């Protein structure tokens, strides 16, 4: 497999082979026809998708990369909000199970929603093991979590009853400041173009939109079975 990079973090959830395609060349696309599994390929939006579509890939998402320099972070506060590394792991996992709906695997018609949820839960478990989760508290109640790695902001999940209350700006601001305090001069994240609320949030915090990339999926073989 010259052009196929296995993605074991996805295979564990879907229980079929999963790959990222490392090239948009014809040789790489032909290789996706030879093996069963689920494929992801990321391309420049200016790339002509004709050959990709001919090999049964289908458009899935456009990812936008906002970036923020340390000096440009706009700090927001809200009385009663705080972040902490002290939390009940299972309570955070319960939030992860139901907090996400904009992920590309949730929109992939070949992937059962329960497996897309499982993917987020396992991602949060991995971050918990690496101590890369902040719990978000509002008036001493667990409201959500903030996941990160190095200079990357990865996940923001909130309980339904705490959404649309103007808390996300304060929580995300505190999480970003904690990352900057760890010594990073720049932060970046990746957001689906469909997730307008998150894009607006990071713009308000001082992030600037830098790059975009189109994501295509392909399934060669049977769909993964729901659990």
UniProtKB/TrEMBL annotation:
Source organism, top-level taxon: Bacteria
Sequence ranges assigned to domain N-acetyltransferase in this UniProt record: 90-222
GO function term, MF aspect, one: acyltransferase activity, transferring groups other than amino-acyl groups
Record's protein name: N-acetyltransferase domain-containing protein
Organism, scientific name: Lentibacillus populi
């Amino acid at each position: 497999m010259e052009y196929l990079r296995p993605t074991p973090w996805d295979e564990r959830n879907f229980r079929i082979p999963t790959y990222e395609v490392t090239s948009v060349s014809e040789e790489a696309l032909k290789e996706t026809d030879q093996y069963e599994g689920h494929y992801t390929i990321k391309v420049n939006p200016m790339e002509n998708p004709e050959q990709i579509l001919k090999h049964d890939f289908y458009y899935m998402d456009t990812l936008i990369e906002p970036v923020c320099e340390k000096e440009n972070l706009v700090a927001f506060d809200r009385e009663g909000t705080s972040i902490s590394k002290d939390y009940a792991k299972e309570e955070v996992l319960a939030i992860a199970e139901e907090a996400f709906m904009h992920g590309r695997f949730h929109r992939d018609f070949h992937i059962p929603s329960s497996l897309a949820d499982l993917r987020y839960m396992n991602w949060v478990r991995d971050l918990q093991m690496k101590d890369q989760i902040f719990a978000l508290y509002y008036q001493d109640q667990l409201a959500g979590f903030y996941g990160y790695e190095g200079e990357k902001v990865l996940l923001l999940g909130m309980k339904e009853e705490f959404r649309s209350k103007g808390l996300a700006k304060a929580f995300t601001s505190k999480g970003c400041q904690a990352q900057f305090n760890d010594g990073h001069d720049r932060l970046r994240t990746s957001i689906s173009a469909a997730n307008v609320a998150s894009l607006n949030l990071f713009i308000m915090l001082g992030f600037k939109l830098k790059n975009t990339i189109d994501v295509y999926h392909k399934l060669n073989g049977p769909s993964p079975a729901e659990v």
